[in-house]
Please model this.
Amino acid sequence: MPNLEYTEELKQKYANLTRTVNEEFINIHPIQRGGILTPEAYRALIAYADGYSLCDNCLKGRIDKIENPPVIDFLKDMASYLQIENVMPTAAARRAKQIAMKVISERYPKRRVVIVDSLAHYTTYLAVETNNLQVKEVPNSGYSEYKLEKENFEATINQVQNDEAELPLLVVLTHVDYKYGNFNDPSPIGEICEKYNIPFLLNAAYSGGIFPIDCEKGKVDFIACSGHKSMASSGPIGLLGFKDKYYNDVMVHSKIQGNLTNRTFSNKICTFMGCPPVYGAPLITLMASFPTVVKRTQKKYVKEESKKANYVIEKIQTIKNLKVLGKLPKIHPLTNVETKCFEEVSKSHPRRGFFLRDEFKERGILGMLPGISKEIKFNTFGLSWDQVKHFTNSFLEIAEKYNLL
Amino acid sequence: MPNLEYTEELKQKYANLTRTVNEEFINIHPIQRGGILTPEAYRALIAYADGYSLCDNCLKGRIDKIENPPVIDFLKDMASYLQIENVMPTAAARRAKQIAMKVISERYPKRRVVIVDSLAHYTTYLAVETNNLQVKEVPNSGYSEYKLEKENFEATINQVQNDEAELPLLVVLTHVDYKYGNFNDPSPIGEICEKYNIPFLLNAAYSGGIFPIDCEKGKVDFIACSGHKSMASSGPIGLLGFKDKYYNDVMVHSKIQGNLTNRTFSNKICTFMGCPPVYGAPLITLMASFPTVVKRTQKKYVKEESKKANYVIEKIQTIKNLKVLGKLPKIHPLTNVETKCFEEVSKSHPRRGFFLRDEFKERGILGMLPGISKEIKFNTFGLSWDQVKHFTNSFLEIAEKYNLL
Model:
């Protein structure tokens, strides 16, 4: 293998890692809107940029016990915000789901089936798979609303009980799904889970930080959140919220002992490999953005964000051969639009499916999937009304250019 | 549970998350020196601050396949730098160790014992524990050098073979340990592992990015590195390097399928839950600092860094009742000093053990463990010679103040 030498070429290769997306463009990429930093988070990020910065004043060898900056306080405040007894940071929401499934499957080793709604994120499936569990999907209503009905959750539970002669291990509800941005109220599902005594996990990766969430009211046992997706944080950071009932299952202290040194590490939590990997920028930006997150999830701001998405939808529905998928009116601003109209254009366009992204980019809008013209996923969260209107007008302009109005 | 409301008090609580350590002080904290960002990394951090920023141009649904910024190139360059066939980012070095142990234990399910040197970091033990494996320590020479001898690795391997009638699963060598900063050449241990046909993992959390590492020469099968500890990166980011022989063991593609939707995710790697959690700032800062890391691990710069630690040591050894622990002369600048002299002072000092940190802080030096006076751990890596001299003089001044010269 050739050895890598320090050269001017190597230096140049990594010298200009810039990102102009948010400076010069409106970024409507569905996974990017909720993670844009607040000014407070930017300041904290710059202050805590280096390596392990958050751990300067770690006195107890545990990130969740750091008092300066106020991590310990923050985790309590976050728990109170989500209305769940305990919150621990994790690498990401996916890791929170993986951990939840692991600890429940150790508590109930005979139960092997995880019930998930059929709009679940791929990482929900991977959390099932990496825990050597089985997945059972709850159907949705299909094209074009993809609605989930509580009756189908109950039917799937009964089916698993019949097939396995065991309760399902867990029910996972995707609070807002990645594909259609459908919002699902956890309460009806939480009630069913309570009735059958099955743990209930809410995947709030797209919702926690965008909507207010009340885990107590929703009868949620575990919640997975994503700081970089929806809480204005620098990635990667997730949260695992869990009820007291599962405290000892999650907070498993190390018991290993060195055979010669007799060293033990009983203060360290196995589940998080000591400390979850959020040592510097991720946790500090989540903390710095937290007051804004609390504020922006007040009802009046949430309503305003829904309005923006519904404004776009109302206007673009005048375009021929275009259909907005998912439940309407929108609650969460992540929107999926079937654009057969643009797909038709792409067939004879020299740039093929890329023409659509080109057209939007020319109008200062980024975040469209390159090469795809048959559907558009966008998210208006946090855009100003001027930006929303510019996006809408651009959409209509492009349609007009290709005679689709 | 009381609900959390947005209030002025909440806003103020998280309004001033600042960190003055590196601006106003010399930070000699052992875990902080190697992670201080390069100017290039700072610029990249600011550009890629938001959430999932690195994934703007993800076309293949895998972070390791992103071309813009050049992640795919970077991983190849890093592999060439470490002289190992494959490199994947991970949440941290601890996660790299945990993954390595998992995949090897799945390959050799009957082998249950991991041999570790007795100066291993606690996360090495936790990686063993969380994989339900057993630990067997290789003795060190004890006070005051804590040296590891290759003969003891071989003896421990033989012992495990005798006791278990199976080979050990893995041998882990801590390249540079967290406690004494002892540097251990991997080659002699790698040769023994090769002779017995046992996989060999090098924990390079404190060394990769500080020293040049040649895994091929060292016969290293797996290497764990830490970007936030030693590669001038914003945490959390680690690296798992692995030989081609283990490619399929590490890169396990998802096989799960939705029972209703038939959805599959065969592009996603189970081991990393799709993509490892390094989506934004961590990976981009590691990439931006990479040329500097390559440069600073050239022999002449490495020698200069060793010189700084040895300079401090030479001067402070004039202090009564003070002993530098670990192997001398220093190769890695992480240094542990037994300071019985200061411990004696603390007994009658009104600030008790805290006096020592106070004294250093008054002289603009931070990073001492609060309340501890019987030992000092410091790391001179990356300090200017002026700073090294100021640190040395401060050390001597404090000793003089308490009549210890």
